[in-house]
Structure formats: structure tokens, C-alpha cells
Amino acid sequence: MRQRCVNKNLPEYQRYGGRGITVCERWGKFVNFLADMGVRLDGHEIDRINNDGNYEPENCRWATRLANVRNSSQTKLNTEAVKVIKYALKYMGMSVSRLAELHGVSYHAVSNIKRGRTWKDISV
């Protein structure tokens, strides 16, 4: 977490420190981090709720890898967008190609949602 924000030699620095993401001063001491976040649950990793926000108690949580990836600034689809897509497919009869265009994703991304290959846990 800290290295991504301060080490300019890391490839991922540009997505963190390079765009102004910092770690709060309080977390300079691990004991404070542990007091704020608690012990990491098995299979979980730190996740910033707001991807444009800093690593600080009110913006961080322990999340599964899947939840963290879905919350990534690199991910074009999130839970709400998938709900909209599923609703539009089911109740509005919108085409896969039109929904892909509207959401800025590939035809295959929407097609996989429609066929239940991805985002199976999200329902409308």
C-alpha cells in the first residue's frame, strides 16, 4: 500500500502516488493501522471505497479480491452498471451492442453478462 504511493520505481506508482493517492499519517505506525482496520480476514485485501480517495480509515475496508477488482479504477463495470445492463436486457429489450456502446465496454463483456458467464451474483 505504502510503496504504491511513494515508490516511483514501481510500475503501479502512476495509478496511486502518481495521481496523488497517499497513506494517512496516522498509519505511519502499524499499531494505528491495526487499531483502525482490525486484523485482515483470510482471503481479503485492503480496498479503498472511493478510488480517488486516500488510504485512510474512513475510506478503507477489507474486501475480497473480487470486490476489490470490481471497485478498481481500471474496471469499467461496477455492480450498479451491471444491474442497469441486466435490467435493460431483461425488461427493456435493449441490444447487447447498444448497451456495450453506452457503457464503453466490449460486446463480449455485455454478452457474457447476458449469458450468465460473468457477474452471476448480481440480480435485478
Descriptive terms for the model:
elongated, mainly alpha, two-stranded antiparallel ribbon, 124 residues, 6 helices, single chain, 8% strand
Mass-distribution shape: elongated
Number of strands: 2
**Ranges with pLDDT <50 over ≥5 residues?**
none
Mean pLDDT: 90
Query: What assembly state would you assign to the polypeptide chains in this entry?
Result: single chain
Straight-line N-to-C gap? 35 Å
Strand content: 5-15%
Helix content: 25-40%
Instruction: Specify Rg, calculated over alpha carbons.
Output: 18 Å
H/E topology pattern: HHEEHHHH
Q: What is the count of DSSP helices, taking H or I runs of 4+ residues?
A: 6
Label the structural class: mainly alpha
For the largest beta-sheet, the strand count, sense and barrel status come to: 2 strands, antiparallel
The neighbouring-strand order within the major sheet is 1-2
Strand and helix map with partners:
Layout: H1 2-6, H2 30-37, E1 44-48, E2 60-64, H3 65-70, H4 79-92, H5 96-103, H6 107-114
Antiparallel strand pairs: 1-2
Helix pairs in contact: 5-6
